[in-house]
């Protein structure tokens, strides 16, 4: 089983700088591993508890996960299916932070009570060495310092441990002498701490939007205090407080100024501003806006050794619904193009179709037109998460998944391998006029949000004809072409799909044209229902009539190579009643037909001739045995149809060949030479069919 898409509710992030593998943990206990494009793995903690932190055993093919249920797990990644080797449960204390130094066998585990326990990673057991909070702070504070929010070892001396307490106290602990060397106190709560690679300075981020830089041997006051987003006030006053800086990283370069990278810290007056990542390099400060809230970020560096110049080259930012990689080496900090299929839910998926054994030339054809849709402005470098190896692909046949989305877009995915690859994206909404604001929106909408959402997809891989049905009772037929065209007038057809069709007044008081009613005994009229252009927006009694829900553009439409519009079909309002959403759809490219239906009826359209061949209300199909329960639409006395009921028809009475052909193709009883009689016979057969036979007709048309 392969899972595609973005990890749901991500909560933790880790990176192995040697193996170049990324790990993401989620609030549901899932673990996703990402390597080079196509290398992906999914694991799950049995408890389902949230992952609060991940730590790689760098270059050892192992990973430690800390969960919200106060358990630690050691994962073995060296086997084909990763598995948990050891687990450790904390019963009396809650885990808040973990730290595993590079090439060390000791895992430091900080708790909510302010204590630190040391775990032997090889045996995955407690060593017995505990740093108690009261011993760490001694008389530097009269109250409890709060939970552990940070643990790290001095880059130049692994025997010195830097411990950050939430209240603002930082302690440099000597592991050998089991006592504190220095204690640093600050008024503001601490969120994160980071070392300079030389081990002589460290930086803290605080809840008031400030950064404090401390010299290790000067614990009395910070060496420097910075408010990255604070307004500098005159008269030497302190800047106004800002939002908390949730995380800071301090990375050095051999050739220039160090990078200070942080999340949060914006001014409180920036209401409505999107979440930001701030990159400070020398005298320049870049504020990079994100589409979603930042869960965590990591700076990718050239070396795994913490005591060397870090040489940062990228920042991986884990957002609530996206994964972003920023190139630090290029001006403007462009992002890398993400090769993972994480954008499936870029707009919510509203329908999905799977096709196997597609023609061999189909995927290359879709890829060739999709390659021209690439966005510009990405980093020119290769995707930096490049670890892992591809497995053997067992499938030898082409598979395609098509997803329809709430914004009216359609994506074609190559699903032949273990991973998904987007081939081509089609925007169906561009055929319609868009309202600039809600006030301009016509009151013909039948949905408040996402009027272009895709509901049904019908596709013929052999002919490449594509047909979609949208939530606003619209159908669009597309033809595949490798040539760019400009369509001067978009072909359009408007259809009235009625439930009640009588030769007398309807319950709403509207006089409708006489059409056959089951059981009346009279011969149905020999007409082929045509489309009804919206020449007027209301009927004689003021009710909205003959108006579609969406307005098709009346200006020329430039259509790129790929799928191009063949025909737009829209159901229209009838006597103040909106059209019902389309519930079934099928396309037959061999006959040039598309058939669609809803609870009111069924219509068949010849998309080559741009004409309606068949338009039947549900009452004509079922008589009084309508399977769909309906509420009366009018307080007036509802006229009961004189349905004769359903009668069983042997399937053999209609041969499959006749069923496939359109009613105008000349099929019918050989004894009748008159076209009218042929149409009469056809309609009489359809009127008395049961639901089962009706579905078989639709299935045959689809085939």
Automatic annotation (TrEMBL):
WD repeats by residue range: 183-218
UniProt KW NADP keyword: no
Pfam family for this entry, one: WD40
Molecular functions per Gene Ontology: GTPase activator activity; myosin II binding; syntaxin binding
Bias type Polar residues, positions: 519-529
Protein origin, superkingdom: Eukaryota
PROSITE patterns, A to Z: WD_REPEATS_2 (PS50082), WD_REPEATS_REGION (PS50294)
A GO CC annotation given for this chain: plasma membrane
Compositional bias segments (type: Low complexity): 531-540, 662-672
Signal peptide positions on this chain: none
SUPFAM superfamilies: WD40 repeat-like (SSF50978)
Region spans: Disordered: 506-545, 624-703
Domain Lethal giant larvae homologue: 227-334
Database matches in InterPro entries: Lethal2_giant (IPR000664), LLGL2 (IPR013577), WD40/YVTN_repeat-like_dom_sf (IPR015943), WD40_repeat_dom_sf (IPR036322), WD40_rpt (IPR001680)
Claim: Iron-sulfur is one of the keywords in the record: no
Keywords associated with the record: Exocytosis, Repeat, WD repeat
GO biological process terms, semicolon-separated: exocytosis; Golgi to plasma membrane transport
Protein family according to the UniProt entry: Belongs to the WD repeat L(2)GL family.
Name of this chain's protein: Syntaxin-binding protein 5
